[in-house]
Amino acid sequence: MNHKSDTLVEIRNLGFSRGERVIYEDISLAIPRGKVTAIMGPSGIGKTTLLKLIAGQLTPDHGEVLFDGVDIHKVSRSELFELRKRMSMLFQSGALFTDINVFDNVAFALREHSGLDEAIIRRIVLMKLEAVGLRGAAQLMPSELSGGMQRRAALARAIALEPEMVMYDEPFAGQDPISMGVLVKLIRELSDALSLTSVVVSHDVGEVLGIADYVYVIADKKIIAEGTPAELKASDDARLRQFIGGEPDGPVPFHYPAADYQKELVGGVN
Amino acid sequence: MALIDAVARLGRAAIGQVTGMGRAGLMLWGALVAVPRPAKGMPLLIKQLYVVGVQSLIIILVSGLFIGMVLALQGYTILVDFGTEESLGPMVALSLLRELGPVVTALLFAGRAGSALTAEIGLMKSTEQLSSLEMMAVDPLRQIIAPRFWAGVISMPILAVLFTAVGIWGGHIVGVEWKGIDHGAFWSILQASVEWRQDIVNCLIKSLVFAIVVTWIALYRGYEVVPNPEGISKATTSTVVQSSLAVLALDFLLTAIMFG
Amino acid sequence: MLSRKVEIWVGLFLLAGIAAFLVLVFKVANVEVQAGNSSYTLYARFTNVGGLKVRSPVKVGGVVVGRVSQIELDPERLVAVVTLNMDGRYRNFPESSSLSILTSGLLGEQFLGLTPGFVDDESVMLKDGDRIADTKSALVLEDLIGQFLYSMGKKD
């Protein structure tokens, strides 16, 4: 094993389309090891899709995704499963298994892959739950938890196997300010304490700029800006200003592309 | 032009159907070729046997009893005109073994367990539980689809046999206890006309075929669901409709092969 | 992970399935477990078997002593050949025994009535593969009614 590069994930000239609709045209980005990288952009541009491309759940039309130097879309299924043991994803909905309790949810991957005996698994699970502050909720079912607690339980599950990289899909969406604060704190702490590589996909500008080390902004199928939070705040790019400032209209149009308004009103049925 | 359009539509529909069947086949293949892991697979299977089999028991037993009783009542009113009410036994037993047992069980199963399977898997998909399994390097086909498939295939023949047995008992209640057909005559004529190979084995074969088809459709509809509430409700409906039609069509085919 | 309740229920479910299957096999289809060579086969020819079926009982004085296992047409003599599967416990039927097709009740099921013949010092007992020579065919209802009407007509 020669020296590890600073980049854990590298995306080169990635293109992806769903049916006729082009989601990404030509995207290249690098995710540094041990840092919090944020990917921002307006809703509906397929940020979740990007995470699924990184995880190998979707296959791109062209381009490559290198995870620690290995092209994730060229390996066999079993090699892909091996790579996936080194990464994990926190889904927007939490995606806890609804038919088993919180403890079993967190223990799930450990029981599947670690081969450790139950006494050790129990100890690890309790430690992970303690880290997200839900040790007391171990025996509850996911449906008995609030949305924020579900996401924290899912976070405990995501870090159970001590992955190298955690991908967060919209971790702040639909959370009250307190849960949001808790999650921001957790992501930062976990990243620092376990030297995790974190990828946060979000459109919550304030929170993201607060925790990210490096930010990519995606809009209109391309990366429109990148840099540290400070650099982005200082930028005078119009589209970036609109997104960060939250202005309703601007270079990113308010209207969905449509035929000429007057013509359509007057013209009637074609 | 309209004709060409129609041909094109037909072609598109056919391609869609074949693609769908191919995808369904791949799903089942992926679920079943996986190396079985007894230590981990067994608890999953037992849990699904409970959900799919045990929880369908009430509806199967109650329906079986009533259908047996109705069959006997209707049969009695007809047979009594010819003075051959002793033949009620074979009438009830053969109707149940050859047709009603496997078919009605499959239809009830599609409504009770099939729709539940579709909804459950659809919900798992739409809440990203399936993706989440994949991210944990666990194959959802092996973890979710395979145990449910086997549970369905094991449960339905058992349910069909229970349905038939309870139905014959219902026929006995109406014929012997209520209408006063001689107990001995009822059973001896019944026993003389039911044959092990022709009737009981065929009942099991039919039931097994229906089990595979219904469970497969239910799982595929759930697995391929459009992940939103509307998609799940549509998928659940189409599970019941498609598996009912498939069961009735296959029943005709199997009956023609077995008794034709 | 699995609760005890689930395991017990699944166990009961499987047991109930097996029990129902056994009921169907032994109570409904009345399959008899035959231990080894405790049965023997006899043959008989009939000009008309009427409503006799495979698995119809063979009775002596109302007691079931065997069942019909096969009904075929002898291609040369053009008569029905009935194969009887006899219970091995009942072996002492003399060669002179006769077999007739009887009906239980007016329109009921048909069965074979075996009437044992006389026994003296010279009589030989029926053994496996033997043919019962003395047979009476089924009474066909139409023939009976025809005869009845004919005789009524003659009286007038």
From TrEMBL, chain A:
Keywords: ATP-binding, Nucleotide-binding, Transport. Transmembrane segments: none annotated. The keyword Mitochondrion does not apply. It comes from the Bacteria. GO terms for molecular function: ATP binding. InterPro entries: AAA+_ATPase, ABC_transporter-like_ATP-bd, ABC_transporter-like_CS, P-loop_NTPase. The keyword Nucleotide-binding applies. Residues 9-245 form the ABC transporter domain. This is Phospholipid ABC transporter ATP-binding protein MlaF.
UniProtKB/TrEMBL annotation, chain B:
It holds the Pfam family MlaE. It is found in: Cell inner membrane. The keyword Endoplasmic reticulum does not apply. Keywords: Cell inner membrane, Cell membrane, Membrane, Transmembrane, Transmembrane helix, Transport. The keyword DNA-binding does not apply. The chain crosses the membrane at residues 20-37, 49-73, 149-169, 200-220, 240-259. It is a multi-pass membrane protein. InterPro entries: ABC_MlaE_roteobac, MlaE_Permease, Permease_MalE. Its main location: membrane. Belongs to the MlaE permease family. NCBIfam families: MlaE family lipid ABC transporter permease subunit, perm_MlaE_1. The complex is composed of two ATP-binding proteins (MlaF), two transmembrane proteins (MlaE), two cytoplasmic solute-binding proteins (MlaB) and six periplasmic solute-binding proteins (MlaD). PANTHER family: ABC TRANSPORTER PERMEASE PROTEIN-RELATED, PROTEIN TRIGALACTOSYLDIACYLGLYCEROL 1, CHLOROPLASTIC. Part of the ABC transporter complex MlaFEDB, which is involved in a phospholipid transport pathway that maintains lipid asymmetry in the outer membrane by retrograde trafficking of phospholipids from the outer membrane to the inner membrane. Probably responsible for the translocation of the substrate across the membrane. This is Intermembrane phospholipid transport system permease protein MlaE. It comes from Shewanella jiangmenensis. The gene is mlaE.
Automatic annotation (TrEMBL), chain C:
It holds the Pfam family MlaD. InterPro entries: ABC_MlaD, Mce/MlaD, MlaD_Phospholipid_Transporter. Residues 39-117 form the Mce/MlaD domain. It comes from the Bacteria. This is Outer membrane lipid asymmetry maintenance protein MlaD. The gene is mlaD.
